[in-house]
Amino acid sequence: MRRVLAYLKPYIPLVILSIAFLVGQVYTELSLPNLMSDIVDKGILLQGITPEERNGFIRSIGLEMLGVSLLSIACAIGSSFFAIRISAGVSRRLRRDLFAKVNEFSNAEISKFSTASLITRTTNDVTQVQNFITMGLMMMLFAPFMGLGSVYMALTLCRELSWTVLTAVIVIIVILGILMVVVMPKFKALQKLTDRLNLVSREGLSGMMVIRAFGNEEHEAERFREANEDLTFTTRFVMRSMALMGPVMALIMSGLQLAIVWFGAKLINLQELQLGEMMAFLQYAQHILISFLFVSAIFIMIPRAQVSAQRVAEVLDTEISIKDKEGAEDFDNVRGEVVFDHVSFRYPDAEEDVITDVSFTAKPGETTAFIGSTGSGKSTLINLVPRFYDVTAGSIKIDGRDIRDVKLHDLREAIGYVPQKAVLFSGTIESNVKYGNDSEDISEAIEVAQAAEFVYEREEGIEAPISQGATNVSGGQKQRLSIARALAKKPPIYVFDDSFSALDFKTDAALRAALKKYTGASTVLIVAQRVSTIMNAQQIIVLDEGKVAGKGTHRELLETCPYYRAICESQLSKEELG
Ligand SMILES: Nc1ncnc2c1ncn2[C@@H]1O[C@H](COP(=O)(O)OP(=O)(O)OP(=O)(O)O)[C@@H](O)[C@H]1O
Ligand SMILES: [Mg+2]
Question: Which of 15, 112, 411, 523 would be a feasible disulfide site paired with 336, CB 3.0-4.6 Å?
Fold first, then answer.
């Protein structure tokens, strides 16, 4: 909570302004009942004055009341104006910082929170905090001022009746206490149930095709129904209990009025109280009860806001595992020699190493290829180069410098990365290929990536739109565009993670031929499933369960590495094997 409230700091002048308006509002509202009592006691009931004097008196006090009311309205508008400005500002900054923070997250942190939860935290939870600040600024300060002021005013008017108010307050405290005990735990549960509903609906939406293909709609609907009903039941319980407050309060309020009038009338009879004074007392009593309600409403809101604030703070306070170390150096004019030096890697919280003691050197102008069965750690290995994860043991050096010693931005600038699962952003083909680089001419990159044929087939050419999630291009087209994106960057190091898997053999061959010319003096790291894709690489590294099972050219490996030979035999014909 404190972490989030610190965001109020820049708004302190506005907070003070808002408080000033609140004080104005309280002051004006407190003086109204007294003015009214003046009208009754001195204007209407007073004996022995001429009608003109009476009218004049009523008119002047009436005007005064009108002025005070207008002032009070102005103050109310002023204070809510600032309260809303402040809370909207705080939530804007919170969202901005959350987004920036999540952008720095490495895969480890993202999987710790889960994407669904990060989205709820940036939206729903921030809104909860915002609502709390708005209400807090408007009620939290208003209610105590108003309550204490009313108590003071009521006491100066008539001490004999104060026990009535006191009794009412005690009754309210008892009822609120019971309500708190019953409802409070449910409030905390609400946020968790909302999380769950989000998770189920997200999964349902993104997995729609699979759900339909497996005819599992009913199971999913059931899952959603459960989550939905849990949330509904809890919300209904909470709302009903809260709704009960309304009539109970009305009852107490009426009882209080009745008591005041009843006992006030006796005092008036004894000439100890005047009619106008009693009317004023009635109003102050009402103010006291209402302020009391406000204060208790705040107490009910606090735990809910606290849960949300905590969830937001958790994200903001997460220690980022991969970032520039202190004094990280610039990394320009990269040649691109990549050296793995006894590298081992284990996923956070995993029991075993996924990569064990891997060493190799990938030279500029050469292609280094990785092959191995699924799950052998190829993607993991290659993802260590752009530092999506940091090595657990050993080191990775580029041009002789440990990649953990240089600026992360410079390092990634030097790498053209094509992920195993192609990702495009909504926009156009051009905006996607130009993504993250300022290359003027992208036609060559499109040509080399073998994307020209389908790009220029379209009427709009490179202006052709890409829809959200790139659903309007095929898997292979997506892959080729994501290759073009890396090529357009013209980096010294290329990383292709199984980027040719969705291409037919002919396109694969054409791409490899064009790629060879295009990449020139750059270092190329390629992960592949097909032997034919990497046969001509200067160096092939065979991975088996995260260990290097063989290293060399295709020819050498056929001789020295039985595992590689087995892969080849399963894929190539006798003649191709030679
Ligand atoms: N984020 C992760 N957290 C924990 N374990 C992971 C994670 N990603 C992958 N693994 C594990 O690491 C191992 C290697 O996975 P990796 O993705 O590197 O395989 P791969 O060789 O690229 O396979 P494929 O050919 O199917 O792409 C697998 O056993 C997998 O279960
Ligand atoms: Mg992989």
Answer: 523
- What order do you get walking across the sheet with 393-398 strand by strand? 355-362, 338-345, 393-398, 401-402
Helix 12-38 and helix 51-104: axis angle, to 10°? 160
Which pLDDT tens digit goes with each residue over 37-81?
888 888 888 788 888 888 888 899 999 999 999 999 999 999 899
Ligand nearest to the CA of 373: 1
Ligand 1 centroid to residue 472 C-alpha, Å: 29
Residue nearest to atom 19 of ligand 1 (CA): 375
| Closest ligand to Cα 529 | 1
Kindly state whether residue 329 falls inside one of the protein's structural domains: no
The pair of three-digit structure tokens given for residue 182, joined into one six-digit string: 């019953």
Question: What does pLDDT average to over the chain?
Answer: 88
The total domain count for the chain is: 3
| Crossing angle for the helix pair 12-38 and 275-316, to the nearest 10 degrees | 170
Give the chain's count of helices (H) and strands (E): 22, 12
Say whether both 465 and 564 belong to one domain.
no
Domain end call among 316, 347, 370:
316
Ligand 1 pocket by Cβ (under 6 Å) = 347, 350, 354, 372, 374-380, 420, 498
- Convert 305-352 into a string of H (helix), E (strand) and C (coil): HHHHHHHHHHHHCCCCCCCCCCCCECCCCCCCCEEEEEEEECCCCCCC
Output the residue whose Cα is nearest ligand 1's atom 18. 377
CATH number at residue 343: 3.40.50.300
Please give the average per-residue pLDDT across 195-204, as a whole number.
Answer: 83
Q: What is the mean pLDDT of residues 334-363?
A: 93
Evaluate whether residue 450 is within a structural domain.
Answer: yes
Amino acid at position 425, single letter: F
Domain shared by 530 and 463, yes or no: no
8 A C-beta contact, residue 367 and residue 537: yes
Ligand 1, pocket-test mutation among 354, 358, 530, most atoms within 8 A of CB: 354
Q: Which residue is closest in CA terms to ligand 1's atom 25? A: 374
Are 474 and 433 members of one domain?
yes
- What separation in Å is there between the alpha carbon of 347 and the centre of ligand 1? 9
Residue nearest to atom 1 of ligand 1 (CA): 347
Of 285, 30, 255, 246, which is closest to residue 166 (Cα–Cα)? 285
Closest ligand 1 atom to the C-alpha of 529? 25
State residue 340's pLDDT score. Answer: 95
Residue to mutate, 321, 380, 391, ligand 1, most ligand atoms under 8 Å from C-beta: 380
Question: Which domain does 447 fall in, by range?
Answer: 422-490
Q: What is the pLDDT of residues 86-140, one digit of tens each?
A: 999 999 999 999 999 998 898 888 888 888 788 888 988 899 899 999 988 888 7
147-163, pLDDT tens digit by residue? 889 988 888 888 888 88
Distance 546 CA to ligand 2 centre (A): 12
Considering the domain architecture, whether residues 36 and 158 belong to the same structural domain is answered as yes
